[in-house]
Amino acid sequence: MVFPLMGSFFWNSRRLSLLMIFLAIGILLWMGIVSLHFLGSFLQESDRVEHSWMVLTSIDRLFSELQDAETGERGYLITRNPSFLSPYQSAEKEVRGHLHDLEHLVSDRPSQEMRAMELGKLIDKRLFLLGNGVALGKSGAFPHRDALLMVMLRGKEVMDQIRQLTQSMKSSEYRRLRRRSLLFYRTRKKVLPLVGGGLAASVLMIVLSSLFLSREIDRRVRAEHKARQYAEEVRDLYDYAPCGYHSVDHEGTFVRINETELSWLGYKREEVEGRKRIFDLLSPEDLPLYQNAFQGMLRGEPVRDLRLRFLRKDGTVLPALLNASVIRDAFGRFLSTRGVLLDMTQKLIDEEKILDLNRTLSERNMQLEVTNGELEGFSYSVSHDLRAPLRSIDGFSRILQEDYAGKLDAEGERVIGVIRNNTRKMSNLIDDLLAFSRLGKKAFSWSLVDMEALIREDILPGILSGGGKGAGVDVTLSPLPRAWGDSTLLAQVWTNLLSNAVKFSEKREKPSVRVEGKVEMGEVVYTVRDNGVGFDMQYYDKLFKVFQRLHAQAEFPGTGVGLAIVQRVIARHGGRVWAESQLNEGAAFHFSLPARDGPPV
């Protein structure tokens, strides 16, 4: 059983033959790189070893020349023979040259460079003493024995320091030589097995890959077959796509066209490809338009959403939308176009339907505007005409109450009070109705409104007057951003919102109202919060409608028009109004205005 399994393993592994060849080549390249690296390291280390030996040689020559100078100086002092000055003078010059070479050689090592600088100072000192000795010898008479001894002792002291310092530099270089030799030996010990193992592995992989090459050839044959199938699928997708595809050469002759576009035009492939030019299939009215676009394509410009009418083989018209780009060769020369055609027949039908609907909608809007105008006029007329009888009822009831005071019983007094109270309510309702009807007629006077100043100076004094019920309400006014709008209309909005907030919270133990504002997402948003009775959110859809109330008239008097006015004013400003609340936990009314840099044009 082992051999069949192994055979199956190697049989399947032949698909990896190409990978093994690459691995073998990679190993060989790696071996070459390692060898080159090792060779480079070897050459580098050789240069470093040679450099160390040059340092050692330079130190020895320097010390030797210094000794020659010392010998010449001593010989001259003892014998007074000028011939001894020749080696002294020659050595003095050579010493400085060797010292310069040594400083250059050790400039890559800070420690050695410091020693070389110290050595230079000692050599300067020694040469100075040698010069003093020679000068003593040239002074005429034989130098005194004590003076001569002093010069020699000081010279010996400096020379011992030089000898010690040069020995230290040589010891450092010898240690460096030993380290480099050890590193070279270790590197060679590591590299040789790696190179040998890599060579064996590459040979093994090449042998295996040659055995498995036949399997790889079979796989390639199958892949080519699959690629042909894929190409056929792509061709089928090209030919039967839901849009038309075509390519034309620099003369406009069709070089390729798919079956979809052929079916739209009613032609066969052999009738179009290489025979017809795209100019021949265009309606005469659209021909100049396409010729201009085609010249642009020859210059490399694409075509975007070009509406054209093509002529079918049977003479009917095909409305289409063309998008096209240019195919170029490796040298940038024009080869052909790549066009995509969309059938616009159904789209044109839909557009015609939309136009009909728009015309109908426009007519309905005009009718609605006329109806709204009539309703506004009617409401204004009715409200105006109701004032005269209301004034009469209120006037006569007041005369009756004043002239017949004491003659009426309690019930009569109560009935007259009810009549006058309801006439006042009716008058307030008419005032609100008139205000609501005038909102659609009032012309806008745009300005940058300082909301904080408007509320503080114009709105709150009237709401929180000393004798009014709102006097005990704590109103907190936060800093408010400015906004563009009609200051008169916006004053009506703030009056309605703040009056409601005060009215619905004044019965609390500690009534409070807070006004806030912020700028976010291109809007200026304002909020009026109170801790009043709130409302049930399930009745939210009635909140901003005319004459809709969520609380009893006896408990919280009002006409039910205030919030409708707020919504209409904010809508005319292009903003929106909304609210949130929980029953007996207060309410928050928000409205937003567009954040503008100036009045709308």
TrEMBL record:
The keyword Kinase applies. The keyword Electron transport does not apply. It is an enzyme of class 2 (transferase). GO terms for biological process: osmosensory signaling via phosphorelay pathway. GO terms for molecular function: phosphorelay response regulator activity; phosphorelay sensor kinase activity; protein kinase activator activity. Its EC number is 2.7.13.3. Residues 230-301 form the PAS domain. It comes from the Bacteria. SUPFAM superfamilies: ATPase domain of HSP90 chaperone/DNA topoisomerase II/histidine kinase, Homodimeric domain of signal transducing histidine kinase, PYP-like sensor domain (PAS domain). Pfam families: CHASE3 (PF05227), HATPase_c (PF02518), HisKA (PF00512), PAS_9 (PF13426). Residues 304-356 form the PAC domain. Residues 381-597 form the Histidine kinase domain. NCBIfam families: sensory_box. This is histidine kinase. It comes from Leptospirillum ferriphilum. The lineage of its organism: Bacteria, Pseudomonadati, Nitrospirota, Nitrospiria, Nitrospirales.
